[in-house]
């Protein structure tokens, strides 16, 4: 009976109308084990509040991570995360979607740790057909170690949108007419991990992980997935208009969201591959369209 009531309530929330480009209503949080499983170093994951909140731990021996049980083609995926506090230089906290093939597709949030007093950097990236090198980096407008904040991906046939607390920080449009591949036919699992990357993560690897500050801990809750699960609904995954995130109003941002995206670009963006002429003398095709946003 409880399962039935949860399903009814969730269906009501997802059908209810709301702001454009984000989930219509806040989803019901479910326990970690409902949709996810740990992937390695199980002893480095701690569970709280009946499994509705977990902590990932990194020490000098290993990090850890988890992944979704299902694979998805399109949807809306979000997580409430509180980053490693204090001196987190060299660490990376990741939340991403990835397919399994050699020419894989991937949608990345990577949070690059800092030396105490310096701001976290959020790096996003998009891989299509095994090709990445589409990094963008921003500073956040808040301290992500103090409270939980929501990090979300909206993925449909028209666009991939990265959100931080419902603020769009990046849009990757379907530019197949320009010859750019777009993730549309490779199912992806959701992953999150906490690991050591002090060869590049902080100031290009100049700042190394201070293991005397270990263990480093990142906290997660709000394990939300609302996508087309391939193992269950494969026949619907390529059919448009079946889910709220596939409706016309989610095929583009609205004017207010474009204003917020412009605000992010003007005040908080510190790197954009589209403007890096030293690294990419020839501008990528999708970047030419991106300049019009």
From TrEMBL:
The family assignment reads: Belongs to the glycosyl hydrolase 16 family.
UniProt-recorded name of the protein: Xyloglucan endotransglucosylase/hydrolase
Q: Which GO terms describe its cellular component?
A: apoplast
Describe the task this protein carries out: Catalyzes xyloglucan endohydrolysis (XEH) and/or endotransglycosylation (XET). Cleaves and religates xyloglucan polymers, an essential constituent of the primary cell wall, and thereby participates in cell wall construction of growing tissues.
Where in or outside the cell it occurs: the entry states: Secreted, Cell wall; Secreted, Extracellular space, Apoplast
Please tell me the species this chain comes from. Answer: Hevea brasiliensis (Para rubber tree)
Entry-linked InterPro entries:
Beta-glucanase-like, Beta-glucanase/XTH, ConA-like_dom_sf, GH16_AS, XET_C, XTH
For the keyword Cell wall biogenesis/degradation, the answer is yes
